[in-house]
Write a structure and sequence with these properties.
This protein has a two-stranded antiparallel sheet. It contains five helices and two strands. Helices cover 49% and strands 10% of the residues. 10% of the residues are buried. The protein is mostly helical. It has one domain (9-77): 434 Repressor (Amino-terminal Domain) (Orthogonal Bundle), CATH 1.10.260.40.
């Protein structure tokens, strides 16, 4: 997700976190009470307007912190 080149952007790393911890998409879908399309959008990092309630459910289901699945990329890093 990009917020503008002057300020950096956020990168969603849910897919990488799940692979590292051997968590299936099905488990995330059921544990976080997500719709299929919603889960795919977050999993693939195609979020335009993240919902913090959804992110809280994902963090709870994955037993992680928000910083484990969302990274801030400063402008000088890209």
């Amino acid at each position: 997700m990009s917020a503008g080149n002057d300020y950096g952007y956020f990168e969603f790393t849910i897919k990488e976190y799940m692979a590292k911890h051997k968590i299936s998409k099905y488990r995330l879908l059921k544990s976080a009470n997500l719709q299929q399309k919603q889960m795919q959008t977050y999993y693939n990092g195609d979020i335009q307007r993240p919902d913090f309630a959804v992110l809280a459910r994902i963090c709870c289901a994955l037993d992680c912190q928000l910083s484990d699945i969302v990274k801030y990329i400063p402008p000088k890093a890209y």
